[in-house]
Amino acid sequence: MGSIPKQRARTAIRPPHRSIPGVPDEIAQRGDYLTREEALRVLEVKPQTLYSYVSRGLIRSLPQPGARGSPRASFYLREDVEKVRSRSIAHAGHGPAAAGAMHWGEPVIATRITELTEDGPRYRNRLAVDLALSGMPFENIAEYLWTGELQDDPIAWKTSTQPKRLAQLLACAAKLHQRPHILQLMSMTVLGLGIAEGNRRDRIRAGETPIGAAQRLMRSLAWTLGYLAPVRSHWTQGDGLPLADWLARVFGIAASNANIAALNAALIVAADHELNPATFTARVAASGSADLHSCVGAALDTHYGTLVGRTCDRVEQLFEPPAEPDAVVQRAMARIAAARSLPGFNHRQYPRGDPRAKLLMDLALVAGGSRGRMANMLDSLRRLESECGAVPSLECGLVFLCRALGLPDQSAGGIYALARTAGWVAHVLEQRLAGFVIRPRAKFTGLAQDARFEAAFAPRTDSFPRKTK
Fold this sequence. Notes:
Structural class: mainly alpha
CATH class of the largest domain: Mainly Alpha
CATH topology of the largest domain: Citrate Synthase, domain 1
Distance between the termini: 47 Å
CATH architecture of the largest domain: Orthogonal Bundle
Shape: globular
Strand order of the largest sheet: 1-3-2
Radius of gyration: 25 Å
Helix content: 40-55%
Number of domains: 2
Low-confidence stretches: 1-28
Number of strands: 6
Largest sheet: 3 strands, antiparallel
C-alpha cells in the first residue's frame, strides 16, 4: 500500500467510518474483526477471492449476531486478514517479507526447543500432550526443555534456601494495593531474588549453575502463589515436594492422584509455545547479555499484558459464577457485536481446536471437583461453539481446570506464568549459545502518512498576529 499523497495528508481530519451500525466509533476502530467491505478494501481483492480465503481456512469468519446465512453478514478476523495481506505483498521484496514475519509470518529465529504442530507444541521431539499423559513430573519436563535430556527417573529439586528478607519484601509489596495481581507479585519475587543473588561475578564465585539458579527461581515463584491461598503469604511449607503436589497443598485441595495429575499436566502443556511476546522478550534480553533473573523478569512484565498472560483473567470474567449459560452467551454475543474477539478462544495455530485445552478439560472431568460449576461451564462452552464458532484454547482450559478444582481467581494465570517460566529459561539458555544480538530494523514511514498526527501537531494560523500592510 502506497504512501498517502502530501496534498491529502494536509486535509482536515474526517470522522472515522462507522463500519458496524450501532457500535460507537471508538469501539469499531479497535475491533478485532472487519466487515466484508473492510476486508475487501484491505486485501484489494474481489469478493470471490475473499470467500476462497475463508473456505481454505486462511481467514476465519464469524456470523454477525442476528444476521445469518449470508456472506455479507459475516465478520472476518482482523489478524487473519492482515496476515494474508502481508503474504500477498511479500513478493515485492525482503522488506515486506520481513514485516510479515513479525506477525505470525515466516520463522525468524532458529530453535531446537519447541515446534508448533496441529497436535499442539512439540518439546524437542515429543508432543507436550503426550508428555503430560506420561506421568512424568513437571520437573523432568522443565529440565528436558533446558538440557535436551529426558530423565526416566523422577527429578527432585533440592530444598531451596530463601533470602531472609524476600518474604518481607513481598509482604510489603502486597500491601501497596488492596488486591495486587499475582503476576505483579511474581515479578517482584524475580526482582528481589535477582538482587539477593548479586551480580554475575558474585554468582560465579558462589559456584552457581544456570540450572540450579532456574530451579531456585521457579521454587520462589511457586511460593509466591501462596498469596492466592487463604493464608495470603509467601508459602514455603512443603518445600521439596514436586510442584504439582505443592500446588495442591497450598491451595488446600485433596492430594488425590487425579488432582495431582491434572495440575502436573497443566504445568507441562503450558511450559512453552515458541516465540510468543513474552518468550521473544526473554530472548531479546538474553541477547543483550542480561542475567537470568532480568530475562525472566522482562518476560513476566510482558506476560502481564491483557492479550497474553492476563487472558485467563478475562476468561474468568466471561464465566463469572454461577456462569449460567444464557448469561455467558449474552456476554459473548455483546463482544462479537462490538467486533471484539473472545479471549481464550480460537487460537490461530489450532483452527480445529487447541489440544492442550481439550486435555485439561478431560482431566478436570476425571478429577471431579465442583460438578455444578463444571456442568454450567460445559453447557456454556457447547453453546459458544455452536452459536459463535468459539473453540477453547489453553487459557480457557486452564480456567476450566481451576474452576473444577475450586481454586481462587487468578490461579489459572499464576499457574500459567509458573509453567511458562520453564520455557523462558530454556529460550534464555539457547539464546546465550546462539551468541548474537537480536536487533531488528524498523522501516521509517514518516509523519506524512498519518494525516491525523500531522493535523494534531500543525500550528494554528489563528494564533499568530496578522501582518499589517
